[in-house]
Amino acid sequence: MVLKTDPFAFSQSAFSPVTLAEMSDSVRALAEQGMQRARQGYQTLRDTAESNQDALEAVYQSAARGAGDYTAKLLDIARANVAGTFDFVEALLGSTSVVDAVELANAHARKQFELLAAQSHDLLALGQKVATDAVEPITASAAKTLKPT
Q: Considering its fold, how many domains does the chain have in total?
């Protein structure tokens, strides 16, 4: 004899009874886990924000120092160029012939082109150093922030 059972019939014995107290304990535990994760996330966000703020302050300080160094270099270049021009004019006024004047002008032009090349190289190197120094705090902060834990 084959017994036929209804697959949709409800049987109390198929489920373990859960009391209200057990259910509230599991909900409380789930809520506490969520709060703990939220606290950890907030702390991580706060630490990252503080680190980024420190990095930005370092960038601003580095950029200000770099701008001061660059300005000082430009003033040194201007001083050297003015002194060279006065020396050239003085020598030119002391020349005794047109040939001497032309030779002085050619020598001065050659010297100025060489000086311009050296000054441009110095300014380029200083600009690269300033840019590298300014970006370094952000790079270090990003590396620290993105480092796998």
A: 1
In a domain, 7, yes or no: no
CA distance 136 to 80: 32
Overall pTM > 0.85: no
Position 8 in a domain: no
- Asked, for residue 25, whether it belongs to a domain, the answer is yes
Could you identify the residue written with the tokens 């620290």? 144
Q: Give tens-digit pLDDT for 10-57.
A: 555 555 555 556 667 777 888 888 889 989 988 988 888 887 888 888
Within 13 A of 45's CA, how many CA atoms are on the CB side? 6
Does the pLDDT of residue 69 top 90, yes or no?
yes
Domain that holds residue 31: 20-146
CB neighbour list of residue 48: distance below 8 Å, 6 or more residues apart: 145
Q: How far is CA 98 from the centre of its chain?
A: 58
Only one residue has tokens 């709060």, namely: 35
